[in-house]
Write a structure and sequence with these properties.
434 residues, alpha+beta, five-stranded mixed β-sheet
């Protein structure tokens, strides 16, 4: 029964590591059975910098979610981000040997495999190959070429590239924490599944996920992902600036940002002052809220301008690339007061905060619908989706076998996505490294 299928999303972030266990209820909504959080000590800007500490943090988060959910966790879906991720556009084509047969899955797979042979910079590997639109012979702008006739099949691809060593380090941490990697996905794509509606993806939307160490961007148009980018700044640099600017310790800076921080300096009057206890018997420090929001504003503006540059690079200002649904902000950093207004002011685009609550079951804990859990919810959805697909394929194979049909085609496993192959390759590498 579908209800027995559980999955686990593991979000290895710069500030926190979250393990979320869940299943789908009878209405197809996510029922979160348990959630474990741990402070992320070994990750800097989305990249593992201390293997031992990261393994401990993963184990801590997993143990907590196991004790809450009462389920044993073995497989996890992991998200990857980090400043080493970049994307590029590429066009490729294949000439089919028999133009009298219709285009099938294998043709698309051959085309995708050809893109995988692209020569990358040393140490880089292709993570995702996402077809944009296809061209069959001279007919352009085809979304789904399967079933059509044609001799030459061409496509534009959005190729996401990352540092092999960084991805392997994450795989190593997960494996050393006693877990199996069932899938890896790009974090902005996971967050997008959790907070964007299909209408927004069709109309054109930019998702900005502001995490602790990085800000991830994913742009959709006509329901297809068009552009991804990872900017190596996030909420932590804002805290760092407050710490430096006000000469206080990090813990106090973080609290100040959450409690009194605003991205809009005009909000506060000069007379609004917050007093911070001094260290070890020293005099308390007095900080004006106006000064605090000036520090925050400067850094947030820099992050938004970086993101806006990426949106312009994608081609938002062209008629064809216009993002009608504007911007959706999510991630822990999106909870900063007046951030939405500042984003609208800088970009001139509509903005809203993205909460992952529309996929969650009605009786879910309110805390789960916080934007800071968007990635974890997206990874959990991905895990459940994969389980369902596998189940369906197993059923199809069973039915085919029962009917005793001579199966000339390769069984459904042939339809492995390029990313699954990448995951399999990674698993093999980790097993060999034992």
């Amino acid at each position: 029964m579908e209800n027995n299928i559980i999955a686990v999303g593991l979000d290895i972030g710069t500030t926190k590591i979250v393990a979320m266990v869940g299943r789908k209820n009878e209405y197809g909504k996510l029922e979160v059975l348990g959630i474990g959080k741990a402070k992320s000590l070994g990750v800097k800007r989305g990249v593992v910098s201390n293997i031992t500490q990261t393994i401990q943090s993963i184990q801590q988060a997993v143990d907590e979610s196991e004790s809450i959910s009462g389920k044993k966790i073995e497989n996890v879906v992991v998200g990857i981000a980090g400043q080493h991720i970049r994307s590029l556009h590429h066009s490729d084509y294949i000439t089919r040997s028999n133009a009298d047969e219709v285009i099938n899955e294998n043709d698309i797979e051959n085309l995708v495999n050809q893109v995988h042979k692209l020569v990358m910079l040393p140490g880089e590997e292709i993570i995702h190959v996402l077809p944009q639109e296809f061209k069959v012979d001279s007919q352009a702008d085809i979304k789904e070429p399967i079933g059509m006739y044609g001799g030459r099949l061409e496509a534009n691809f959005h190729v996401v590239v990352g540092q092999v060593s960084s991805i392997r380090n994450i795989g190593r941490c997960v494996k050393s924490a006693g877990l199996d990697l069932s899938d890896i996905t790009l974090e902005p794509l996971a967050s997008a599944s959790a907070v964007l509606s299909q209408e927004e993806k069709e109309a054109g939307v930019a998702l900005i996920d502001i995490g602790g160490g990085t800000t991830d961007l994913a742009i959709f148009k006509d329901g297809i992902i068009r552009h991804t980018a990872v900017i190596p700044f996030g909420g932590n640099v804002i805290t760092e600036d407050i710490k430096e600017g006000c000469s206080i310790i990090e813990k106090q800076a973080e609290l100040l940002k959450i409690k009194f921080g605003s991205a809009w300096p005009g909000e506060n009057k000069e007379t609004e002052i917050v007093s911070i206890p001094g260290l070890r018997g020293r005099e308390p420090k007095e900080i004006t809220l106006k000064n605090l929001s000036k520090i925050i504003h400067a850094r947030v503006q820099e992050i938004i301008e970086h993101v806006y540059l990426e949106i312009k690079n994608y081609g938002h200002e062209t008629q064809k690339g216009k993002l009608i649904a504007g911007i959706v902000l999510t991630g822990g950093g999106s909870q900063l007061k007046h951030l939405r207004q500042l984003v609208e002011y800088i970009t001139g685009m509509d903005a809203r905060i993205g909460y992952p609550n529309e996929h969650l079951a009605g009786d879910s804990d309110d805390g789960l619908s916080s934007p800071s859990y968007a990635t974890a919810v997206g990874l959990l959805m991905e895990g459940l989706e994969n389980h369902q697909t596998e189940e369906k394929e197993d059923l199809d194979t069973e039915v085919e076998n029962q009917e005793d049909i001579e199966i000339e085609k390769t069984p459904p496993s042939k339809k492995k996505s390029f990313f699954e192959k990448f995951t399999d390759g990674l698993k093999e590498f980790l097993d060999n490294a034992e």
